[in-house]
Amino acid sequence: MIGYVTVGTNKFDEAAQFYDALFSTIGAARAYDTETFIAWGTGPSAPAFSITKPYDGGAASVGNGVMIAIAMDTNEKVDAFHAKALELGAKDEGAPGPRVETFYAGYFRDLDGNKLNAFCFTPE
Question: How far apart are CA 108 and CA 63, in angstroms?
Answer without folding.
Answer: 14
